[in-house]
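The protein record reproduced below.
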Amino acid sequence: MGRGRFNGYPLGPMILGVTLSRLLDDNWRRAIISAHGDLGEFFEGEFTSLLSLVLFMSVILILVSQTPVWARMKQRISRGTSID
């Protein structure tokens, strides 16, 4: 186990995750209750505001960019081969 690590994970993000998990859970529950349990109504606000849509798409892009598929695609583009 390296310095500042817990089970191979950096200690800072672990502490942040434990600290914010309760806050995230409480606010998620509050948002679902205010939408009367309807996920369609809950996500409706995400796509009606341009700012919300841009932030949502940014998060999706960040998550996809961390996958092995993205890395392979980037390597193929840098080599000049087709993606097919």
